[in-house]
TrEMBL record:
Annotated organism of origin: Candidatus Aeolococcus gillhamiae
Pfam families: DHquinase_II
Protein name: 3-dehydroquinate dehydratase
Enzyme Commission number(s) of this protein: 4.2.1.10
Quaternary structure (record): Homododecamer.
Function, as annotated: Catalyzes a trans-dehydration via an enolate intermediate.
GO aspect biological process, one term: amino acid biosynthetic process
UniProt site positions, description: Transition state stabilizer: 17
Lineage, broadest ranks: Bacteria, Bacillati, Candidatus Dormiibacterota, Candidatus Dormibacteria, Candidatus Aeolococcales
Pathway: Metabolic intermediate biosynthesis; chorismate biosynthesis; chorismate from D-erythrose 4-phosphate and phosphoenolpyruvate: step 3/7
Keyword Lyase included in the entry's annotation: yes
GO MF entries: 3-dehydroquinate dehydratase activity
Catalytic residues identified in the record: 22, 99
Enzyme class: lyase
Family from the record: Belongs to the type-II 3-dehydroquinase family.
Amino acid sequence: MRILVLNGPNLGTIGRRQPEIYGHVTLAEIHDRLRREAEALDVEMRWELSNHEGALIDLIEEEDGQADAIVINPGGLAHTSVVLADALRGFDGPVVEVHLSNILSREEYRRTSHVAAAATAVITGAGADGYVMALQAAARLAAETTTERRR
């Protein structure tokens, strides 16, 4: 099984940017945790970070037919990007959106996620642990999807 993990704009600065909201764990530390979890789940993981909307869309299109699932933290693009949501709708597999902070308890404009409308599941507000939960959920959902396709 292969899972694509996408990180959107400004996530490379977590751990030092607004730690009162996003925590003190860096994206590199999250990557290490996820790598270990992927090994435990026997999942191949591709990890990518981009501050550019089009680059994220290119990765989604590139991985369609290759990856079994996507975990995505779109950052602020969750609230603004219809085209990113459309690209995820075109992906043939489960999509799990993850956010470090609870976007539903934040500013009004952050409470709507276009990506969530295209996702199979959403994990928000669990901090760095949310990424591990998202990877576990994506693996389970992908396994269920594969089983359903075989029937």
